[in-house]
TrEMBL record:
One of its GO terms (cellular component) is cytosol. It comes from Suillus discolor. CDD domains: YjgF_YER057c_UK114_family. This is Endoribonuclease L-PSP. InterPro entries: RidA, RutC-like_sf, YjgF/YER057c/UK114. Belongs to the RutC family. GO terms for molecular function: deaminase activity.
Amino acid sequence: MPKEVVYTLDAVPPLKTFSQAIISKGFVYVSGNIGCTNDFQIVEGGVQGQTVAALESIRKILHAAGSGLQHVVKANVYLTNLADFSEMNRAYLAFFDENAMPARTCVGVASLPLGASVEIECVAELPDA
């Protein structure tokens, strides 16, 4: 079964060098999302506002793929300042069932596109695959 490109106008558009997501072998691989608007302006509210915006974009992409945040099995979070870890977590926790949190890695990075503070990518199951 060939891979399938996922695209939705509802989420932040991808650059020409990557897709919003790819479906392959029963999983959705969502590219990294930063907290920006569809016209690539970083949202207000610091790391919490950016985390919410990134996860809302991911939610829309997963929906377009036939999945959802409840099906995320692994997330990777990139922070430009690890001192923002607690604030990011406060926003992040609102998007997932506390009794079924996905596996996750969080790493500190030197910089992110557009000066963002956080970027999130994930892998989710397709419920009917």
